[in-house]
Amino acid sequence: MADNRPNQNLKALVIVAILALLGGNVYQFVTNNSLRDDNIHKEAEITSLDSAKVELEKQYQESVAELNSLKSDNEELNKSIEVQKEELRLQKEKIAILLKDSKNLKLAKNEMTSLRSKLEEYVAEINKLKAENDVLTTSNKDLTEQKDNLSKDLEKKGAENQQLNDANASLSAQKEAINKEREDLSRKYNRAAAIQVTKLDATGYQNREGKKPSSKSKASDVDFIEVCFKTSENMNSDAGMEKFYIRIINPLGETESIPSEGSGTLTNNATGTQIKYSTVAMADSKNEEVKACGKFANSGAMQEGVCQVEVNNKGYLVGTTTLKLK
Questions:
Q1: What's the CA gap between 255 and 225, in Å, rounded?
Q2: CA-CA distance, 173 to 62, in Å (whole number)?
Q3: Which residues contact 293 (CB under 8 A, 6 or more apart)?
Q4: pLDDT (tens digit, 9 = 90+) per residue, 167-212?
Q5: CATH superfamily, domain at 195-325
Q6: pLDDT tens digits, residue range 150-166?
């Protein structure tokens, strides 16, 4: 009995070793099968990705070729096609990025389907534009023919009107000459009819409540300036109310002008320029000596120094004097 125990123990160890070896083989077998399945799955994914990439490139190239085939001599249409090609290129790049990961394969295929749909939309839109352009081309052709016919009619009428234009040009030249002669005569008349003034005097006054204004020589005391003169006899001037424009030019050489005080502008017939005037004096001219006065108010704003005073009639200077304010 003592001799059989070691044999039994040995058998047990052998059995355990065999079972362990079998278990290891089974585990290795299962692991190898799992790795093989994973490799097969990955190979399938890579194949699908490669196939999708090839299909994407093919689809893109065909799309570009189709768009290029729609080009014509219409620059605007060709620009639109180039824009659509650029949109397709951007869409292609987006899909190519998705195809770098098999997890995005489904999404990438959806985008490829969308790419095809966009191409169909682009083609339909371009064909519509081409059809509209054909209609416009036909319309333009008709309009061109109408324009040519109108041009011929206009040329015919132009030839007929040329004689009238020549006659009108001759009449216009004669009219301009007559108008110029009239203007020259008018200026000569106005110059001859301008009424000269004498005894021209300018005085500064200060208003006093309830009393007559008092004359002042200090600029800050002057409320208004009164310019008085007498008209001289001029047989070239018609009798009636005559307007005399008074200009008060301050020491800075500026014409005192306040629209609310009756100031404005007049034409200097000697130079043809516009000049400002300060106020107006009216005189009932009867070709005899008449006194007239004009007032210009600018309370407390007069400047120290010598003011130049001018009187104009019919656009010509007819008298001057000065006023010194302290």
A1: 13
A2: 74
A3: 226, 227, 228, 229, 281
A4: 788 777 667 655 555 554 455 555 788 899 999 999 999 999 889 9
A5: Immunoglobulins (2.60.40.10)
A6: 888 888 888 888 878 87
Phi, psi of 291 (to 5 degrees): -90, 140
Alpha-carbon dihedral 107, 111, 117, 122, rounded to 10 degrees: 160
Residue pair 205/213 in contact by the 8 Å Cβ criterion: yes
318 CB-side CA count, 13 A: 27
To which residue do tokens 């014509």 refer? 72
- The 10 Å Cβ neighbour count of residue 246 is 28
Find the helix or strand (DSSP H, E) in which 70 lies: none
Secondary structure of residue 208 in the 3-state scheme: strand
The alpha carbon of 17 is separated from its chain's Cα centroid by a whole number of angstroms, namely: 97
To which residue do tokens 């278990």 refer? 23
Q: Label residues 208-233 b or e (16+ Cβ within 10 Å = b).
A: eeeeebeebeebebbbbbbbbbbbbe
For residue 266, which of 256, 280, 276, 254 has the smallest C-alpha distance? Answer: 276
CA distance 317 to 326: 27
Count of CB atoms within 10 A of residue 287's CB? 15
Q: How far, CA to CA in Å, does 159 sit from each of 97, 166, 311?
A: 73, 11, 57
In contact, 217 and 204? CB cutoff 8 Å: yes
- Residue bearing tokens 């200077």: 317
> Which ranges constitute the DSSP H helices of the chain?
4-69, 75-98, 105-193
